[in-house]
Amino acid sequence: MTPTPPTLSHEQRVEASRLAVANRRRRAEVKRLVKTGELSLDELFDLAAREECVAQMRAYDLISALPAIGEVKADRIMKNASIARTRRIRGLGPKQRAELFRALVR
Fold it and tell me: What local confidence, expressed as pLDDT, does residue 106 receive?
């Protein structure tokens, strides 16, 4: 039997929607900072340890946000680091993080 989602009041749904929008905006801002070089990979992982919405970003989105890295290069980096395309930043293991640093930090 599949579990049913919780029944939320109108106010709870509005608040959840507001929170979701704020989280999406924060992740978009972090991607912009990464793309412009204002946020390094080290700083991003530190930020992910402090902010849940950043930790929930997909690793693929992070990698493809970097300058000069498109879909093909991002896929290759993730394959070499044994990272699934759907893996989130918080779910990366120490070896995967080390491989990302090796591939991305020049």
Answer: 61
